[in-house]
């Protein structure tokens, strides 16, 4: 992969929005007490077994205010707004059909202003936990913010997703779908249940035939998923991953002889002149750098494929080029580092083969970044 492609892709921006609505149901004022129905049993979840206050209800949804977060600052107990639960009777897959971003804004923004006790700014988020009626664990949760407001902050025209987190059941369903996207494991074993599990399991088993066949289908032309997985894997070794959990590497996984390497580059300087030939300034000359820390056995490979753009560039490539197979394998590699102990026999064998297989590919293709 050429550096120019990587550098260009590194600037890609990702915008996450709600699924397009096929129809919307207009409602009245969200904080109209007349809309609140009585005797509706609120849901509970796995980390909070308590009743919630019903603050809004109509034919589509029931909205509950979550109990406030409690914190202590300088000996004083403080309460802060903690968001809402939304319960509905339709299927999770139909949520985008009934709950558009505009529809949610009409409900959530007035409720959030009322229950937080203050005016929300553009930077404020409202966290919502979603349940289907009868479920005791939330399906997923979303942090919304409301970017379109008038000057007094009273009107939000739509709700935009800032963060989206799957609940336990939703994650299991997603992983089941993701793990089979590249096909079923030829031999059942470690990592088959992860996204891209067939590819990760083939690394574990040192199955070059399966890897070569999958690379020809899912990798970039003349490329291999091995290079992208290895770069991300090494970069993530001592980092907080996208799930929000810290990898248990600093004390447990780094061995004697672990090494740190920083890759950097300085962008080209472009000078501008006016039509009359006068100096109009310049751009560029910026230093871009990423630092890796790896165990000694990874270091020779790191010198070959490490990048000033770090390991996160691999997901950027996969998403910008719509390489779902590559994206699944990268996602699975991240989950592998979280769910499996770095001292386990499975991970040790996976890492050993990842290094040797990637080296095999680099020598075979005379590959360079």
Number of helices: 11
Mean pLDDT: 76
Order of helices and strands: HEEEEEHHEEEHHHHEEEEHHHH
Radius of gyration: 25 Å
Number of individual domains: 2
Structural shape: globular
Q: Percent of residues in beta strands?
A: 15-25%
Distance between the termini: 6 Å
Verbal overview:
The chain contains eleven helices and twelve strands. It has two domains: 33-166, no CATH class; 176-365, no CATH class. It has helices at 3-10, 95-98, 101-116, 168-179, 197-205, 208-218, 225-235, 299-305, 313-320, 324-339, 345-365, and strands spanning 53-57, 61-65, 69-73, 76-80, 84-88, 126-132, 140-145, 160-166, 259-266, 270-273, 279-283, 287-294. The chain is globular, with a radius of gyration of 25 Å. With 369 residues, it is an alpha+beta fold. Helix 7 packs parallel to helix 10 and helix 9 (313-320) runs antiparallel to helix 10. The N and C termini lie close together (6 Å). A hairpin with a 3-residue loop joins strand 1 and strand 2. The strands form four sheets. Strands 1-2-5-6-7-8 form a six-stranded mixed β-sheet. A two-stranded antiparallel sheet has the order 3-4.
